[in-house]
TrEMBL record:
<dbReference type="InterPro" id="IPR006076">
    <property type="entry name" value="FAD-dep_OxRdtase"/>
</dbReference>
<keyword id="KW-0285">Flavoprotein</keyword>
<keyword id="KW-0274">FAD</keyword>
<dbReference type="InterPro" id="IPR045170">
    <property type="entry name" value="MTOX"/>
</dbReference>
<dbReference type="Pfam" id="PF01266">
    <property type="entry name" value="DAO"/>
</dbReference>
<dbReference type="GO" id="GO:0008115">
    <property type="term" value="F:sarcosine oxidase activity"/>
</dbReference>
<comment type="similarity">
    <text>Belongs to the MSOX/MTOX family.</text>
</comment>
<dbReference type="GO" id="GO:0050660">
    <property type="term" value="F:flavin adenine dinucleotide binding"/>
</dbReference>
<keyword id="KW-0560">Oxidoreductase</keyword>
<feature type="domain" description="FAD dependent oxidoreductase">
    <location>
        <begin position="9"/>
        <end position="370"/>
    </location>
</feature>
<protein>
    <recommendedName>
        <fullName>sarcosine oxidasee (formaldehyde-forming)</fullName>
        <ecNumber>1.5.3.1</ecNumber>
    </recommendedName>
</protein>
<dbReference type="InterPro" id="IPR036188">
    <property type="entry name" value="FAD/NAD-bd_sf"/>
</dbReference>
Amino acid sequence: MEYSGDEYDVIVVGAGIMGSSAAYQTAKRGQKTLLLEQFDFLHHRGSSHGESRTIRATYPEDYYTPLVLESYKLWQQAESEIGYNVYFKAHQLDMAPANDKVLHAVVESCRKNSVAFRVMNRDQLDQEFSGRVMIPEDWVGVVTEHGGVIKPTKAVSMFQTLALQNGAVLRDNMEVKGVERDRVRGGVWVCTANGERFWGKKCVVTVGAWTTKLVKTVGGVELPIQPLETTVCYWRIKEGHEGGFAIGGDFPTFASYGNPYIYGTPSLEYPGLIKVAVHGGYPCDPDKRPWGPGNPLAPLKEWIEGRFSGVVDSGGPVATQLCMYSMTPDEDFVIDFLGGEFGKDVVVGGGFSGHGFKMSPVVGRILADLALTGEAQGVELKHFRIARFQENPKGNAKHFL
């Protein structure tokens, strides 16, 4: 078989935030890198577009906090290389009934990982945020300094630009239909829908909501990653109160545990509007999206009316955006070798379950480590192995659920 010039050390399939971060990492290490994307770069059909994502270190699973703390440093390092900001600092507020198991696990995780936190009752929280956030009498809030907002599309563009500056080749509108083992000299062939073929020593697959489909085609492995269509909602802050909810002041990113799980960010992308949304969505086929109608609004309206003292208009969102989650049963990531005939030559990153974006710099670092050295430095990956679903279809057991 003849070999063309289309040969690489690493081929990354999927140019969302995880793939773009991984390509940046491999290119920065001097590896000849190819980044392939099935649609246009910076498209809106996946999980890496939009105007804001929260970043926080308060996780009930204590194995995420170290990843977030490393990601803060890696976000800032990439920003220093590109010359602009994608991360905007804020405090983080977590709130729930005082007996909520998830909130208790968050506190224990903070203690274990030496993350400073303050627990506040209703009156203390009222004083902390000057009456802008109200919680019921039997609720508590947990405040930490490790909050903030990431600009997603801008962040993806940053990693792609840095990958390019470090010598990576970027190709969009290149849908990958298969990955094949090269039985002559090792490595893999990556085959696209338009008939082009690229050879790589290693391949990293980060295709978001398309992970289950592609991994089954390539390796015959059934991954329980369910795409969900989710809706992001923006609500109007009543006139005269806009400044109190704006980024750059003391208003936090926030999460409210329970059913539904509600999260939000200070006003940033749209002046006078605040993002408040439900974590979750509806199962969908990423190639046959319903594009709506979105999550029920009644619980959100009730929550906003109860928490923001009537200062945010709860009548309905004034703007919405659709996005996708790639959900695993346990909401933990998949970061592992595909195995089988591919051994350690194909690495899969997927199932980021609506909370992975904040950790994309460290996930990119881990994926690059696995592809280039066969192991990830300083990270325990047992929670992210594919094999966990063979042992238990629901994945990792969570003591707080």
